[in-house]
Amino acid sequence: MEKMARVTTALGGNALTGRTMFCHLDAPANAISVCRDAAQVVVAGRNIFKIYSIEEDQFVEKLNLRVGRKPSLNFSCADVVWHQMDENLLATAATNGVVVTWNLGKPSRNKQDQLFTEHKRTVNKVCFHPTEVYMLLSGSQDGYMKCFDLRKKDSVSTFSGQSESVRDVQFSIRDYFTFAATFENGNVQLWDIRRPDRYERMFTAHNGPVFCCDWHPEDRGWLATGGRDKMVKVWDMNTTRAKEIYCVQTIASVARVKWRPECKHHIATCSMMVDHNIYVWDVRRPFIPSAMFEEHKDVTTGIVWRHLHDPYFLLSGSKDSTLYQHIFKDASQPIDRANPEGLCYSLYGDLAFAAKESLISSDSNRKPYIGDRRHPIFFKRKLDPTEQFEYISSSSALSVFETDVESGSMDWFVHTAKQYALAGRPLAELCDHNAKVAKGLDRNQVAQTWTMLRIIYSSLGTVSSTNLNHSMGKGSTTLPLMNSFNLKDIPSGLGSESRLDRSKGESRTENILMDSSSTLINNEDNEETEGSDVPADYLLGDVEADEDDLYMMDHENPHAEEQEYSLPQEAFPLRHEIVDNPSALDHLQDKADSPHVSGNEAETVSLTPVESFSLISISHSLYENRLPSDFFNPIVRDTLLFYAEQGDVQTAVSVLIVLGDRIRKEIDEQTQEHWYTSYIDLLQRFQLWNISNEVIKLSTCRAINCLNQASTTLHVNCSNCKRPMSNRGWICDRCRQCASMCAVCHHVVKGLFVWCQGCSHGGHLQHIMKWLETSSHCPAGCGHLCEYT
After folding, report:
1. Fewest C-beta in 10 Å: which of 134, 191, 640, 741?
2. Quick one: which of 586, 566, 584 has its CA closest to 494?
3. What are φ and ψ of residue 621, in 5° steps?
4. Which regions span the lipid bilayer (predicted)?
C-alpha cells in the first residue's frame, strides 16, 4: 500500500475517509461499479467477478461471485452495474450475449438471479433506470437495444439502431423516458422507451465509433460522448438540433467518460489503448488536463466516482490487475510542466504574444510597440475555494502587434499560386510563363531566376528573343544585352586558337566567355520579336551583319552610343604562342554559304573572314561542349535554399516541381518534404484547395503524394432500410429498393447527389436547392428539418 495524505469528506451525516490506495486483483478488470452508499465496489472481467469493501486504509475482499465447479461464460463479464436504488441488485453483460442479474440477498452461495438470452452477440453495456427498480437496458454488438422488466422473463421492448453495433446506452438522469445510445458508425441516438419503433433524434457525433456517453448529473440537456477520433464532445440537447458546445482533444481513443460530481465543467476520461493515465478535464480549458492520475501500468478499463455527491474520490480498474482509489489531493497537475509563454503569427503577419502576468506587470519600463493594436489583456481564472489542491495562478497577459496592412499584404502569393504553370508544357515555356507572372507582380528577382533556369536547362538553339527581353522593360539594367564593341579590335589569331583548343579537347575555363548576353543571343528568325527593344537583325549567331550594325542603340538614352567600349588586345591570358591557322579562317569565310544562313543575310554579308568572326560563336560552342546543365545544379540548389530561408517557399517548391529530376537529387528528401508541407499548408490557409491538390499530385516526395489518397472512401447508407450499401449500383441488395431516389422528382439520381446527414433523404442538387428556397422540411415528408451546406 502507498502512504498518501488522508482525506475526509462530509456527506450529510456520513463521512468518506480514505487515501490513495490499491489492491491486486486475480485477473484484469473490464468494468467496475460502486454501490449507492460508497462502501463497496464490484469488479468484473473475463476471469474475475468480486465485491470489495472500501475500508479506510485498504480494499477488503467480501464476496466472490464466480462459484460452481464448471466455468461458465455467464461469469465472463464485459460490463457490470450496481443498482442505485437497491443495494442487493447487480447486472452484468456477458461476452456470450447473455444479460445476467444477481441478487446479493440470496442465502445460497450462487447469487445468480435471472438470465436473458435474447441477444445474439456480445452485450457491450447494461444500465439500470435511475428511479425504476425493475427496469434494465442493454446494448449489444448485434445492433439491438433491449429493455427488460425484472419481474418478467423476457424483454418488454426491443430498439433497433439500424447499425452494426451498440457501444453504450445510458438512461437520462432528468428525463424519465429518455435514453441515449452510441454506435459503431459514429452516430448518437435518443430514444423514448414508450416508442420502440423509431428514435426521437439522431446525429453524427464523431468520425468513427462512439465508445461511451454520460449524461450530466446537474444540467438536464448536456450529454458527453467519447470516440475513437480521440475527442470528447459535450452536446446541448435542449435545442431542436444537437449543438456541440465543448470539445476536448485527447491523445488516444476515449473508452470511458464520467462527469465529476459537484463540478459542472469537470469530466474524467480514460483511453482504450496506448495511454494508461486517467485525466480530469475542465471542458472550458480543453487543451490541458486539470488533473492526472498516473498509477496504472496498463490500459484503464473502468472509472467511477465513489459517491454521487463527492468530487474527491475516484475508483478505477485496469488491465494491469489492480484496483485503485485516487484522491484528488494526490493528483498531478500537468499545468505545472506547461510552458506559460506563447507566440503566434497570424495569416497576415499580426503577432500575438502571451506571457505570465507577473512578467508583464513587473516590467515597468515596457513601452508600447509600434503597431500595438491594444493594451495587454489579462485572462484570470477564478480559483475554486472548495478544491483540495491549489491551482497555479493561471493568469496571463496577451499582447497583439498588428503589422501594416500594405506591407503585410499576401495578394502576390495568391495571384502567383493561381497563375503559375507547373506542368503540361515544355520546360522553356513553363519558365517563360512563370517569369512573366513574377514580372507582372513586380517580383523582378524571381522573374530573373526563372529566366536563368530557362537558359541553363533548355536547348540553346531554341532560345528566342522573347526569352531574352520579356523579363526586362525599357531602361532595365538588370541584364544588359550587349556592350558596343568594334570587331577590328579582335586579335586575328583568337578564332583559330579557340577552335584549335576545342579540337584538342582541353578544359580551359579561361577561354570561356561567361557574359550572360552572349549566351542568350542566338536568334534564327529574321523577325522583330514582340517585347524586344532591339530588332532581331541585331541578335546575331555565327554570321554577323555589317560592322556598324553591331552598335546597340538605347532609345531611352541616346547618348549611350557615344560610350564605345573596345576589347583589350588580348582577350585571354596566353599560355602559348598564338599560331595563325589559315584553314580555320577559310572555314569561317565559307560560312557565308552555309545553309543555316538565310538568303537575305548571305547577300548582305561582305565582311572579311577576320571581321565576320564573332565572340558569340565562341561562347556558344564552348558552352555547349564544356558546361552541361548539371554543372549549375549546386548553384540552383543554393538558390532554392536561399528562397526557402527567406520565407518564399512558393518559389522553391515551384522550381522543384518544374525542374523535377534535374534538381531533385541535389536536395535531400527531408528538406523537400518540409518545403512541400509548408507550401501546402499556406495554400490551404488561403483556401486554394485545387492548387494545393495539384501540388500534392506533382510532388516528387512519396510522403506528400499520399496526402490526397487518405479518407477518399464515402460510405453510404440506404435511405429506405438505413443499412450500409454493399454494392456500387443504385439498388440496395437488402431491401431491393433504389437507394438514390430524388425526394423531389422521384427519379434515380445517376449523377451528382446531395443528401441530408440527419434523415438520409436527398436528390438532385438543383431540385433540392429549389425546394429549400420555399421550405426547410425534408421533401420526402419525414418531417426532418434538413440543412444542407
Report:
1. 134
2. 584
3. -65, -45
4. none
Residue type, 648: D
Q: What does the pLDDT average to over 475-496?
A: 39
Residue of 258, 248, 251, 391 whose CA lies nearest to 329:
391
- HEC string for 458-490: CCHHHCCHHHHHCCCCCCCCCCCCCCCCCHHHC
| Residue 132: predicted pLDDT | 87
Determine which of 55-64, 355-364, 652-661, 749-758 has the lowest per-residue pLDDT on average: 355-364
Of 109, 113, 84, the closest CA to residue 100 belongs to 113
Strands (E), 294-395: 300-307, 310-318, 322-327, 342-345, 351-356, 377-379
- Which pLDDT score, from 0 to 100, does residue 731 have? 77
Q: Which is more confidently placed, 590 or 288?
A: 288
Closest CA to 322 of 280, 259, 278: 278
Quickly tell me which residue has 508583464 as its cell.
360
For 439-452, the DSSP string reads HHTT-HHHHHHHHH
- In angstroms, rounded to a whole number, what is the distance separating the alpha carbons of residues 769 and 787? 11
More confident residue, 259 or 726: 259
**Confidence at 728, pLDDT banded by 50, 70, 90:** low
List all residues 6 or more positions away from 247 whose beta carbon is below 8 Å from its beta carbon.
231, 232, 233, 234, 286
The size of the chain, in residues, is 789
The residue ranking higher by pLDDT, 589 or 641, is 641
The helix or strand, by DSSP H or E, that contains position 245, with its residue range, turns out to be: strand 243-249
Q: How far is CA 370 from CA 363, 401, 404, 551, in A?
A: 18, 8, 10, 54
Confidence of residue 718 (pLDDT cuts 50, 70, 90): confident
Eight-state DSSP code of residue 314: E
The pTM is what? 0.53
Give the span between the Cα atoms of 449 and 457, in whole angstroms.
Answer: 12
Given the C-alpha cell 520579336, which residue does it identify? 529
Per-residue pLDDT at 404:
67
Strand partners, 50: 43, 64
Are the CB atoms for 55 and 40 separated by under 8 Å?
no
431: Cα within 13 Å, side-chain hemisphere: 24
The whole-chain average pLDDT of the chain stands at 75
Residues 489-511: tens digit of each pLDDT: 444 443 434 333 433 344 333 33
CA dist 81 and 296 (Å) reads 22
Kindly give the pairing relationship between strand 322-327 and strand 753-755.
Answer: unpaired
- β-strand partners of 764: 753
Cell of 104: 446479493
pLDDT tens-digit series, residues 541-571: 344 444 444 334 444 444 444 445 555 565 5
The grid cell for 692 is 494545393
> What pLDDT is attached to residue 270?
94
> What is the spatial distance between Cα 435 and Cα 416, in angstroms, rounded to a whole number?
11
- Cα 73 to Cα 45, 96, 101: the distances in Å are 11, 6, 14
* pLDDT score, position 568: 58
Give dist(CA 89, CA 162) in Å, integer. 31
Q: Torsion angle of alpha carbons 761, 764, 769, 771, nearest 10°? A: -60
Query: Cell numbers of 610, please?
Result: 577576320
82 beta partners: 90
